Amino acid sequence: MTQLIECVPNFSEGNDMSLIAQITAEIEGVDGVKLLDVDPGKATNRTVVTFVGTPNEVVEAAVRAVRKASELIDMSKHHGEHPRFGATDVCPLVPVSGISMEETIPYAHELARRIGEEVGISVYCYENAARTPERANLATVRAGEYEALEQRLSDPQWKPDFGPDAFNPRSGATAVGARDFLVAYNVNLNTTSTRRANAIAFDVREKGRIKRQGDPLTGKIVRDSEGNPEWTPGALKCVKGIGWFIEEYGVAQISMNLTNISVTPVHIAFDECDRRARERGIRVTGSEVVGLLPLSAMLDAGRYFLRKQKRSTGVADSELIKIAVKSMGMDDLGPFEPSEKIIEYVLESQEQEKLIDLSTRALTELTASESVAPGGGSIAAAVGALGAALGTMVANLSSHRRGWDDRWEEFSEWAEKGKVFQQELLELVDKDTDAFNSVMAAFRLPDSTPEEKRAKEEACEQATRGAIETPLRVMEASLASMELISAMADFGQESSISDSGVGALCARTAVLGAGLNVRINCADLKDSAMRQQFLDKALQLEQEAAAFECDILERVNGKLQP
To answer: Of 49, 187, 189, 534, which shows the fewest CB atoms inside 10 Å?
Structure first.
């Protein structure tokens, strides 16, 4: 899976959009990065920018944006309601998909280092990227704001993590962090009462409500030994919330910020709001996501609601998304368009069309054309994906078979495994063609000088290795899918036994077909030891696939005997 991280820099300018346009142009000038949102605030004199992309490219775009902001924004003249201490006040990185928080933190440190060294701005690392515990809290790092920054920089205890410790009156300082993905999420109610919406918000949000004696609304506030109000925590961790009335829709909402969706996912927040609303005689009619959210959030929600129905979760992503949308009423106030609301799909819409997005006819005709790619490697991967899909289909059908209700989880787990193989093999359809194109590009490199010749030889060797490793992975994934197919041949519903047989034939074809690609590409590999390793591995996979297919078809044919 491609690693994606989000960056949400806050720039201390919210009135002159021509300046912000110059800053965002720096972001848009980096390949592999997509600008998602620009949200200016006049009262705060601050603009929140959101962009996403692959990690190294996001870091590069952030450095360019911070540099441009330092050229355009003069903090000595800045006034605004929001706390701030720099032209680029904060610049957090957020893991989106294919990357963990632990893997994101080094990118935050690299971003901080580059801002300090290349742009010459004092940088403090906060939240998960904090290098000392006392700097984890942004409010602590930014205490006193810009006006106190010169004095703070002179304190050895507050020496910046990166960059100069001398006060820069024009640019101030920047806080670079790594934080969890925040989802702005609103739940719609069948009431116009802000007070009742607020009550439900207090029930669910982590902070909860002020503790009172007797009546929870009018009773005397309970205070601790120091005279501070005591609080009764709400039901959900990492949730901030309030109730409000939306004039546009004529309904009240529970407006929430889910600050860590790995702790409280969207679907859990929805269900808890629904439960608390019903306790108060109110119904939830739907919900909405403000901005974008990761694909994983929608897939997790779809699986959650399918499990509640005791149905298989090993279905297509599009089906999981549809279940999530309908279960949470995310189309209550307007259409939910995955291509506009899910980060990964927004990025995909900007990419060149892939082979796997073609119709069967279009892929077949493209393969039959005079173009040398796609070729046997991509087709082997496609056949392998179809074999895994057949095994997944049998698992899904078996999970819904009448009389087998107590086995739905067993078959759902098999279907989930099959979906993983299917998705990887689909990705390998394009990856194989990309690997071939890389080899062709390497062979076209100039080799007039000794240096160019050396560089070309290294590029060719590297590209050839990629052209071997890709079909080798097709072989491994296709062979692994045969475990699912074998299981379905054993105890899947008998009316689908022939589908298991065809799945086994597809899987073995994929292994053997990809093996041919490994062999032909190995001929161009200069490293003889590595070449032999690849060939030995391919032979082993072919032998295992042949034995597996034989075993499965023997059982399939046995069940097909009249």
So the answer is: 534
